[in-house]
## 1
Amino acid sequence: SYFFNFLVDIPSKPRYNMSIDSEWSLFEAILENRFIRYRLVMDVVFTKMPKHINLSKVLYAMEFYESKLIRKGIQKNLNVQVKFDPNLRIKHGRYAQCYWVYENRAPRDFIIEIDSGMSESKIIKILAHEMAHVKQYVNGDIYDYIKFPSKTRWKKTTIDKDSMDYWEYPWEIEAHGYEICLYEMFKEHMRKLNIRKRGDKQ
């Protein structure tokens, strides 16, 4: 069973009835306002959630990726904001991006931006990729040089990003591997969960 503990910013004049009976109706109420803040162990904030996305499934995915990638001692101090943008690919030439805020040395606060024009399955798969980057930053595997934006330290090696292709970046090679493996693991996890739920109903 899953317990959802919400921390919610409610507008001064909400467009919905707040006399709610369950966590699931609260899902729907907050989704109507297009803003949701969800407490896993890490703190996750969603903004501009697209209507074609199954919110509960995305939350399950974030919880699953967190459990596989982030050490338990760090999870409670981690803050991730997931921002959906229908024009991200047009503006930045990419479907998603992850970056730290406030502190670039072993950071704990992150923003993940995702193009909301993609399908639900693609978004959930890409979230695995971006959460892999969160793990890399949290563990200190990757470090961005603020004064030298073309350079990145990967583990103990400083890499000039201008000297190689995106597909050669070692942090991207690792993140793409996590993207494929974790997404397949999540689908299998959901399949078993659904089988178990169907068995409980019989």
Note: Helices lie at 23-32, 55-69, 72-75, 88-92, 120-138, 170-201.
## 2
Amino acid sequence: LEIPPDIAAKRIDAPPAPTPAPRSATPAPDPEATSRAAKLLSEAHNPAIFVGSGVFGAEAELRKLAEMLQAPVILSEHGMGALDIRHPLAQTLQVGNDLWPEIDVALAVGTRFFHPIVHWGRDDKVRLVRIDIDPAQSIAAWPPDVNITTDAARALAALIDCLAAVSAQRPNREEEFARKKAEKEEALGNILAPQRAYTKVI
């Protein structure tokens, strides 16, 4: 594609930008769906939280819920940073792949949940709760047991309140998950050396 210099340099009067459509109000979390999600999570033996870019804006709620459930937070490539990777519960997709066979309830927040559905294998034994602002996305590909259509901050805050009322305090598993993360990092480091050493320096 070529544009003659005189055309590229020409000035014209641009039409006014269209007025953006007003944003619709964010729906409140459905109380019945929130209650069912809290019940699933409170009864889970090995819950896990999967996050994508839709979780940003709810970082504080994410951390509080993860620590309440003592659940690993599997960060997709678009969700990295939602929970500091130095936190014991924050896990990469590589660790998430290792944990997948043990997970009985998955909470997917603001994510297409691509890797579990496409790469890891859909498991009918896993109960799925999805939180997404997009109603279509919240039921796409893998119909969930519960879907909550609202933004992540409002949904997670509502879940925290529900769980506080119905869930007993869980044993601390942070040391266990920190160890699994360190073991995976070491294993990958052995495979990728010496490049891994360079990235650590950087």
Note: Strands lie at 47-51, 73-75, 90-91, 105-109, 127-132, 146-149.
## 3
Amino acid sequence: GVSLVCGAFGTFAHQAYAACRSGPVSSNVRPHKMTFSIRLAQERDVPDLGIIEVQARSRFTDDEMTLELRMYRTPEHELHACRRQGLLWVADVPSIGSVGFCAADQLEDCLHVLQMSVLPAQGRNGIGTRFLAQIHREAKDRGLKGVTLTTFSHIAWNAPAYGRYGFVAIKPDEVSPALLERLQSEGAAGLINRVAMRKSAA
């Protein structure tokens, strides 16, 4: 499948996006915070995750991503494979249900974020930030070297926002064969300006 790590993941990502779209975010704005919890996904959760994934991509413009790619859903068999490895988490909001998910797999000596999506209406609640903290902790617990992902380099709420969380862009000549294969797959699917990033588990 094509990795489209693009979900909203916390206040700083949304502020960066808002600044890009309509100028600086006022310090007087205090978004309503909703209570949520992160848990391992169950088999019954998987069929509904595609809806979250597609809605999360509604924030992209036609110039940033084609309609076909915005409608792409990670195949359920891939999500089930992540779930069986204990690498699929969902975010639940009381009275609403699941509003986001994060799927990962092991790629070489790191955990790799396959997909992270949060419903736009539930943004600025820190859900994505918690997902990233969860997968980073999981990598450490498994004795792996870190966490990797691929994302857009030119969109404020993608690579620059991940950079604020400690991810560093991998130089082209230092990208591992497995990560390079994923970047090439994304390019073949029509994605441009993609970059691989890594955060050490140390």
Note: The first helix runs from residue 11 to 22.
## 4
Amino acid sequence: RRRLARRQGRLAPRGRLFRAATRRGHPRSRRRTCILCPPPCPDPTPLTGRRRGLVSRAINAPSSPLPLPLLDRFAKIVGEAHALRDAEAIAPFLIEPRARFHGATPLVLRPGSVAEVAAILALANETRTAIVPQSGNTGVVGGQIPSSRGDEIVVSLARLNRVRSVDAESNAMIVDAGVILADAQSAADRAGRLFPLSLASE
């Protein structure tokens, strides 16, 4: 299968793509691109073996931390009491339940209103700062964990935990992003309705 795939041009010979890319830039002789070339550079080669290792090292390469004045601007939006900087206070936000993914961040923001979330995102867009939203931190695929570079800010939605309304007639409810499943189920039950979503992490 591998020989057939190479013959059809879907796979590069092992090692050749990376040697060519690292020694003399993009291999002009091939109508194929690689992850080591400047973007845009789509490459259909599967992320396996050495290629996977290169991608991993590129993603986790160290970079300069976010400047302190910028962190202060973010912290001012939610107030210092809800801007976590202490290593011990931040630690629970940097690991998921199975302890398979670990991250780093200089700041965890805990907004208490939609307006504060909007202000955080406006500043992040202005300064090109990466934001990682996190709610219950119960996911097991690592999407809620910041990278190990330490140049992303975690925005915890735990304080946005209000059930805004329950409409029994239309079987609908409006809740904040940080409402846990157990609270949503209780609100529906009080209205004589069933919230039909149940997970182990509720």
Note: Residues 10-47, 53-64 have pLDDT under 50 and may be disordered.
